[in-house]
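Re: weekly structure request thread

Next one in the queue (164 aa):
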Amino acid sequence: MQEILDLFASIIRRRYESMLDDKQKLQVVEFLFFVQNDIRLNQLASDTQLEELWEHVRDQETLTDFLFLVSQDLAFHTDSVLWTKTQEQLARAYTIVYEASIELETPLGDETLERMASRGTIYKFLEAYPWLVAIFMIDLTDLQKALGVSAEELKQLADGEAAE
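Done, posted below.
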């Protein structure tokens, strides 16, 4: 799966570097950090939660365009077998704690388990919404590598400073 993560990082980098508007670049960077730091993808358990995530993206044309472009790019560079394998791997990874807790009856607590998504739910969403594959991939991506910046530049971007 490292190969698909490397491919995805290069797609993000190419799309990001091709953007001409610094304000749009900043919106994309803020979104990348939002995905990695503010969303619990393992708790994407309902249509309502998915709709709320989509509304966040849809409300900003730059994000919608960026997400669709990276999704399309990833789909173009993967065949149907690799695309399906990626969806399956993402669903497995993001539900590993939930699935182990159900099978082993570990003491996470009912409240925690109720908030978490099952593998079937995550897979169903990934299969139905190709843009969601990109969001899950963003969460796993090394942003420093993807954006082609140093650690210090990444910190500046995280603090909301425009890319130079």
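The chain has one domain: 2-158. Residues 2-158 form one domain.
Next request, please.
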